[in-house]
């Protein structure tokens, strides 16, 4: 069964850093666009960062300059380095893998990892 498993979520003080990881199994991420999304309590899920299959990155304005998305196709993982965290970054963070091949759309989600930023 295809799986995405996130890890690295934690409780950190404002200004702290975290590195989230997403490990894929039973499929290769190399042809997939990978992204991180987050959902705060009472809010809709929002896109945080994306990285295409060829390594082009894009970020939400709220995290640009603080977060960095990267991928390691050999290890079948994608990461999100988060620096200078603020309480507004508190959310469950989800990993997503998407590939469109003709009329077929493959769209996979992980279960999420909790990030809490608080003093």
Helix and strand topology:
Elements: E1 3-7, E2 11-12, E3 18-25, E4 33-39, E5 46-51, E6 57-59, E7 67-72, E8 77-82, E9 91-101, E10 104-109, E11 113-117
Parallel strand pairs: 2-11
Antiparallel strand pairs: 1-3, 3-8, 4-5, 4-9, 5-6, 7-8, 9-10, 9-11
Protein architecture, described:
By secondary structure, this protein is mostly beta strands. Helices cover 0% and strands 55% of the residues. The protein has strands at residues 3-7, 11-12, 18-25, 33-39, 46-51, 57-59, 67-72, 77-82, 91-101, 104-109, 113-117. The strands form 2 sheets. Strands 2, 4, 5, 6, 9, 10 and 11 form a 7-stranded mixed β-sheet that branches. The protein is globular, with a radius of gyration of 14 Å.
**Poorly predicted segments:** none
Structural class: mainly beta
Number of strands: 11
What amount of the residues lies in strands?
over 45%
Features:
seven-stranded mixed beta sheet, single chain, globular, 119 residues, 11 strands, four-stranded antiparallel beta sheet, mainly beta
What's the gist of this structure?
The protein is an all-beta fold and 119 residues long.
């Amino acid at each position: 069964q295809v799986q995405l498993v996130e890890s690295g979520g934690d409780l950190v003080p404002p200004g702290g850093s975290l590195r989230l990881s997403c490990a894929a199994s039973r499929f290769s991420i190399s042809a997939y666009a990978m992204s991180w999304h987050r959902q705060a309590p009472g809010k809709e899920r929002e896109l945080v960062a994306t990285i295409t299959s060829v390594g082009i990155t894009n970020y939400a304005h709220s995290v640009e300059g603080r977060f960095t998305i990267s991928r390691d196709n050999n290890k079948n993982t994608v990461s999100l380095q988060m620096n200078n965290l603020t309480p507004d970054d508190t959310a469950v963070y989800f990993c997503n893998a998407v590939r469109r091949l003709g009329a077929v759309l493959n769209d996979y989600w992980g279960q999420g990892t909790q990030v809490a930023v608080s003093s």
